[in-house]
Amino acid sequence: IIYKFLLPPPYLSAADPAVISPQDPTLLIGSSLVATCTVSPDFHLKAEDLYWTLNGRRLPAASYAALGPTTLSVALAHLNGSKQQSGDNLVCHSRDGGILAGSCLYVGLPPEKPVNITCWSKNMKDLTCKWAPGTEGETFLHTNYTLKYKLRWYGRDNTCQEYHTAGPYSCHIPKDLALFTPYEIWVEASNRLGVAVSDVVMLDILDVVTTDPPSDVHVSRVGDLEDQLSVRWSSPPALKDFLFQAKYQIQYRVEDSSEWKVVDDVGNQTSCRLAGLRPGTVYFVQVRCNPFGIYGSKKAGIWSDWSNPTAASTPRSERAAGGCDPKGGEQNTTLRRELKQFFGWVKKHAYGCSNLGIKLYDQWRVWLQKSHKTRNQV
Amino acid sequence: GDSWGIFTFLCAALCNLPALPALNCTEELGAGQSIQKTYDLTRYLEHQLRTLAGTYLNYLGPPFNEPDFNPPRLARAERVPSATVDLDLWRGLTDNARLAANYRAYSRLLCYLRALDGQAGTAELRHRLGHFCSSLQGLVLSIAGVMSSLGYPLPAGPAGPPMPSGTPVAPNDFLKKMDDFWLLKELQTWLWRSAKDFNRLKKKVPPAVVTLRLEARGF
Question: Where is the Fibronectin type-III domain (chain A) (predicted)?
Answer without folding.
Answer: 113-208, 213-317
